[in-house]
Amino acid sequence: MEIGMKLRLITNCSVLSLLGCSLLSLVLTGCQTSVGGDAVHSGTYLRDGVQFHPTGPEDQLADQQAALEEYKLQREGFVADED
Predict the structure, then answer these.
(1) CB-based contacts of 45, cutoff 8 Å, min separation 6
(2) Is residue 18 one of the residues assigned to a domain?
(3) Does any domain span residue 3?
(4) Which residues, 6+ apart, have CB-to-CB distance to 34 below 8 Å?
(5) 3-state secondary structure string, 8-65?
(6) What residues make up the domain containing 19?
(7) How does pLDDT run across 20-58, given as a tens digit for each residue?
(8) Mapping DSSP to helix (H, G, I), strand (E, B) and coil, where does residue 14 land?
(9) How many angstroms separate the CA atoms of 18 and 13, rounded?
(10) Of 23, 33, 54, 59, which one has the fewest beta carbons inside 10 Å?
């Protein structure tokens, strides 16, 4: 009987210490959540400044295609030369 009580005590202590360490790690590190598809890293995200970067053609292919279209129009005489 005494061995069973010691085993139960060790098991209970192990479970409580595991839960305590888990809770402590959550408190110390914070949780990353997702709100509206955005990753929220801190509890003060509502007071943080808004960072907005408008989308645009940022790759070289889009620039090259636009330059090629302009060149074709210049060769056909639809656009006056800027020179």
Answers:
(1) 35
(2) yes
(3) yes
(4) 40
(5) HHHHHHHHHHHHHHHHHHHHHHCCCEEECCEEECCCCCCCCCCCCCCCCCCCHHHHHH
(6) 1-27
(7) 888 877 677 665 666 677 776 666 666 767 777 767 666
(8) helix
(9) 8
(10) 54
Residue 80 within any structural domain of the chain: no
Task: Flag whether 71 is in a domain.
Answer: no
Are the CB atoms for 42 and 48 separated by under 8 Å?
A: yes
Backbone angles phi, psi at 16, to 5 degrees: -65, -40
Q: How many domains does the chain have?
A: 1
Q: Where are the alpha helices (DSSP H) in 30-78?
A: 60-76
Radius of gyration of the chain (CA): 31
